[in-house]
Every structure is written in structure tokens, then in C-alpha cells.
Amino acid sequence: MIDGWSFFAGLGIFLFGIFLMEESIKLLAGRKLKTLIRHFTATRLRALNTGILSTAVLQSSSAVSLMILAFAGAGLMSLGHALSVILGSMVGTTLTAWIVALFGFSIKIDALALPLVGLGGLGLVILGKSQRGLQLSKLLLAFGFLFLGLDFMKDSVQALAGAIDPGRLPSLTPLIGIILGIILTAVMQSSSATIAIILTTMFSGLIDFSQAAAMVIGANVGTSVTILIGSIGGTAAKKKIALSALVFKIGTALAAWLTLPLLLGLTRVLLYPARSAVLGIAAFHTLFNLLAVLIFFPLIPALVGWMNQVFPERKADLSRFIHNTPAQVSQAAVSALRREILHQLSLSMSFIAGKYGLPATPPAQNSLTPRDTAFDYQDLERFHAEIFSYYAQIQEHELDQGEALALEPIIRASRSIMNATKNLSEQFGEIEELGRDDNHFLADAGLGFKKRLVRLRAAAAELGNAPDQPGNPEKLAAFFQWVENEDKQFIASCARAVSSGRIREQEVTRLLMANRFFTQSSRMLILSMQALAGS
């Protein structure tokens, strides 16, 4: 019983070490690593190398895979390059097995783990005020916990192995070993932890080299669970990457299973496992992931084509006026562009209202709503690009002075609408968090932002229903003044709240920044409405 708890404690310490290591490395690397991943994927070969290096640095294929899901979902990376990074991450993640095998079983743990824990703990206290010092201390602590947890597991399994006759254990066939590796990794969400368990049980003699190799193959497949979960409810691009990653993992496992005797023989030639079985497993882990690269890297274009058939891109056609009006007929084109941007305003406000969960209102005339077609932020971005492209086509033809003067403010309105939509969409999380706060003043502030958004949407709907109504300029000028008054009243209420102790000083900055961001977006939308309403 004691040994069982020792193993359980060791596993927990090991997993915590892995978590702390990933967290500290991500924060140390910060935006620089994300920028490198984005920029060093110009070709499939560079994307493959980026996947290897970034995963070796982060020590987590799951973290890199989720990052790639985000980039691909935002349209910042092509599917073929994203799949190359995923394939590279399969090789990069094998570095963990080498670290565990080289340091966890080749030297006395106390000589490595305890100094790292001591240095990391002291660093947290002494260097805690420096963000970089804090994360470096966490990294040292993480490595210490990783090796300390491994030592707990190793000792407990060795004690168990002394009381068990391996000859009496049921035969662990390669297929059962693969399935067991999949289950362990899927449950713990960490192939590193699974491989650590495999290495400790093999080191203690409970399983042999070939059985451990089969379980490592399964651990490789189990890592696909994280990326599959990350793609749930995501865009088609995310689903393509998740399914492709599953194809990579299952295909690699199948190839490794069918050629297991050959791979084991090759591992024995490269690194004689009888002298160091744990290093042999690390080598085997790297070897069959390199096999995956050899098999699947040339097939990525074909896989992309198949994925595009399985998950065809859904691109909502949001334009209503510019496609039916030739750009060379300048007078009609300028009028169509204005009507299209009014339509853009209506769609953008519908998108924001849906995101914030605002109550439904009747749609503006000549406008699509979510009830007519499904669209998301990426659709709005494409729609804005279509509008600007049409504007560029109009510019290619001769315009009289009046048409040129009318054109510029309405295209600026389109840019401002897109900018405000992006800002309000990104601010959603902050406003929702305020609305759920235990502090009543903060919760009321979050609710107040939503109420102001309702008024903003109503003004946009009124303009969309009657864009040429004579009184529009006066109404919009009054509404702009209302926004300014709301801004001043909010600032004044924050001043009263902090002076009376209803909110803390650090919460004032949070509220004022949220209000500034929201007010700037509101101003952009109203100025756009004024440009579209005309004089």
C-alpha cells in the first residue's frame, strides 16, 4: 500500500513538474516564440523544422499543437504548413524521453533533483519581484520536481518488482501494449508522464524492451486527444488540423506496429539496449517519429486536398449590392458602395449583439441577420476586403469632384466599422468578467457597458432603416454627445467609488481602460454613421 501511494505521489510530482516547466517556458518565450513560429513557416520544410525546434523548447507537443490550431483558425497559417509543424512536433516531443532517460536513470537523483528544488525555491523568494527571475526559478523548480517525481516512481516500482515474479504476469502483446499506452496518455493528457511510467517499469524489470516500445507507440497516439478536444466547436481549419493529426498518429502507430521487429532491430544496432534499455526506448521513440516524417511529409499536399473535401470551407456571401453594380459606372458604384457599407454596419452590429447576448431586435431593412445566414468574424473580415477591393476598382475609373468627395468618407467609415467590431469583439471577455464580479460596482459597470451597446445598436438599426431621413445628422450628433456624457459620468463614478472605498485603486485602472476602449469604439461607429448618413 505504501509503495502504491509512493508511486501515486511520484506521478503527481512529475506531472506538476511538467506543467510548471511548460508554463515557465511559455512565459519566458512569450510573444517572441509565437512570432517565430508564425514567421518561420514560409515553406513546408521550414514549418517542419519549426515544429521540431519549438516543441523541443516548449517540451510539449500539445502546447505547440494548440498554438497552431489558434493560428490556423485565425487564418494566419495555411493548412499545409500547419500540418508540417504538427508533424515536426512529433519529433520534437521525443526530447523529453531523452532527458528522462539520460538524467533520470543515469545519475543519482538526489544529486540533481534536490539542488534544483532548493535553487528554484530560493529563487522564488529572492527573485520573485522580477518576472524573468520568477519564471527562471519556476523552471529550475520544475526540473527538480520532474526528477524527484521520477525517483519516487522508480523506487516504488522497484519495490513492487521485488515481490512479483515477471514470469507469472500475463503476456503483454504489442497490441495490448499500444492500447495501454493510448489509455494512459489520454487519461493523464501527457505522453511525457506515460513514457516516464514505461521507463520506470522497464527499469525495474516488470516489462521488457519490446513491451515498453509497444506502449511508447500507444503513448504517441494518446497525445492526439488534446488537439481533438481543442478543435471542438472550432472552425473548419481547426477540425482539418485535428483530424490530420489523428491520421498522423494512427498511421505512424500502424506503421510502427507492422514493422516493430525491424524497428527494434535497428534500435539495437544504433544503441545497444542491453547496456541501457531506457536510452534504447528514447532512441526507439525518436526513430519511429522520424519514420512518420518520411511517410507523411511527402503526402501532406494530398492530405490537404482530402481534408478540404471532408471539411469544405464555408464562406458566407455577405455582399448584396456591389456584386450587381459595375465599378465603371461611377455614380451607381458610389451609391452601391454606400449601401453596402450600411449593410456592413448592420451585420457588424448583429455579430456584436450575438456575441454579447443582447436581446433580439427586428432586423434593419435590406439587411441580412443571423437568421438569414450564419457568419462569423472571419466572414466579416472577408466582406470588408471585398468592399475595399470594389473601392479600388472604382478608383481606376474617372470620377468627377463630387463623386470623389463622397467616396472617401464612406470608405473610411467601412474601415472604422471593422476596427470597432474587432475592438468590441476582443473586449467581450473583459466586460463579461466585470459583469460576473462579486464587487457590485464592477458588476454594474459590466452591465452598463452592455446597456450602452444596446443604445448603439439601436442607432445603427435606425440609420439602416432610413439612411436618407433629413433629421439623421442631428440625431447622430445628439447621440455622439450622449456617448461623451456617458464617458464623463463613468469616470466621475469611478472617482467617487475609489474615494469611498467601494473599489480598490488597481481596479480603477482596469475600469478606466475598459471604458476608454469601449468609448473609442463607440465614437468610431457613430462617426461612421455620420459619414453614411450624409448631410
Give your account of this protein's structure.
This protein has 535 residues and is mainly α. The chain has two domains: 2-310, no CATH class; 322-533. It has 21 helices and no strands. It has helices spanning 2-39, 44-58, 61-73, 79-92, 95-104, 109-126, 131-163, 174-188, 191-203, 209-222, 224-230, 236-258, 260-270, 277-296, 300-310, 330-356, 377-395, 401-435, 440-465, 472-499, 505-533. The longest helix has 38 residues, at 2-39. The model is unreliable at 161-169 and 363-372 (pLDDT under 50).
Essential attributes:
2 domains; 535 residues; globular; mainly alpha
Q: List the helices and strands in order.
A: HHHHHHHHHHHHHHHHHHHHH
The number of domains? 2
Mean pLDDT: 79
How many helical elements? 21
Radius of gyration: 30 Å
β-sheet strand percentage: under 5%
Low-pLDDT residue spans: 161-169, 363-372
Structural class: mainly alpha
